[in-house]
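Database export, one record per block. Field names are fixed; values are copied verbatim from the stored entry.
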Amino acid sequence: MQVALDTNVLAYAEGVGDAVRCNAARQLIAALPDDAVVVPVQVLGELHRVLTGRPGRPADDARDALLGWADAFSVADSTWTAMTVATDGAADHGLPIWDPLLLAAAAEQRCRLLLSEGLQQGFTWHGVTVVNPFLAPKHKLLSSFLTSTWSRSF
């Protein structure tokens, strides 16, 4: 199973936010197998904006953070097909274009989950289910994924 990460998960892992979520994001990312994680390129662009915004990180530090995430995980480009699919999501569900684009890019990479605090928990679109990894109890798909990942490591 592939899992896509949204901007808020990476921002928390970068230390932007409250200590509880930052620690939870770091622990979550550490528990995910590197070869199962996808970061849509759009997320990296949004992360750059977040890091250079309120926390005021210099652009070169933000660049280093983005390159580090790209080194750690697969990066999914936004394609024209994903954009056209996203326009349907925007029109049919009243979503801002960036949310269905993120889901479409994740679907193109065969992701089953999008870990995001910013989208509706349990919303499934094109086979990708949105899961808020900071809610308790954990969504059954995320729990199942983490359990199967853990059991495969032995």
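Remark 1: The mean pLDDT is 93.
Remark 2: The longest helix spans residues 59-72.
End of record.
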